[in-house]
Design a protein that fits this description.
alpha+beta; four-stranded antiparallel beta sheet; three-stranded antiparallel beta sheet
Length: 182
């Protein structure tokens, strides 16, 4: 007769295994809320657009709002989100329960790398992990790595806020064309 040496191991989904390995975070610290999808990325998710990826580099035909500088600076991303009603949040703190919609912009060595979103009334942020799943998490989770390496996305450098009652414009669905035949 064996003895019970503790709780039974938790069976992880493929999405949980991928996120845990890719970002060096404990699967107990996040929840997968939707499966893998190459249709959109973290910036599009934070903007509320699950139909296409957003990124200033048009190399792959990603959407970027017309008239916004195509670079990875904080100002360019803030301008992109301003097109859909977000403004710079004046504080570096977000209420424990969000009083509005917020976007957190992460910055690494080469500029903005990631965006996370929180809805009014929520205490958890959501992030789309590349072409992988969308996860629900505490914001600081993505600013750390359990393997001692620098965090994959860098650190949050700016919060954007869409005020309560503000119009919620839908992102345009047409991708911006660039180049000689635009």
């Amino acid at each position: 007769m064996g003895t019970n040496s503790g709780p039974a191991p938790i069976s992880l989904t493929e999405e949980q295994k991928w996120v845990a390995k890719e970002f060096q975070i404990d699967p107990a610290d996040f929840k997968v809320v939707s499966g893998n999808s190459p249709k959109f990325n973290c910036i599009a998710h934070a903007a509320g657009d699950n139909t296409q990826p957003w990124w200033p580099n048009n190399q792959f035909g990603f959407y970027w709002p017309p008239g916004v500088t195509r670079d990875t600076s904080l100002d360019a991303f803030a301008a992109a989100f301003a097109k859909i009603g977000y403004n710079r949040h004046k504080s570096d703190k977000i209420p424990a329960i969000a009083d509005a919609e917020y976007v957190a912009l992460f910055v690494g060595e080469k500029g903005v790398t990631h965006a996370a979103h929180i809805s009014k009334g929520s205490s958890k942020w959501t992030s789309k992990c590349g072409t992988g799943p969308t996860i629900e998490h505490d914001l600081k989770l993505l600013e750390s790595a359990s393997d001692g390496n620098p965090p994959r996305y860098g650190r949050v450098q700016r919060y954007l806020r869409r005020p309560e009652g503000a119009a919620r414009p839908k992102p345009p669905l047409a991708r911006t064309k660039v180049g000689p035949n635009a």
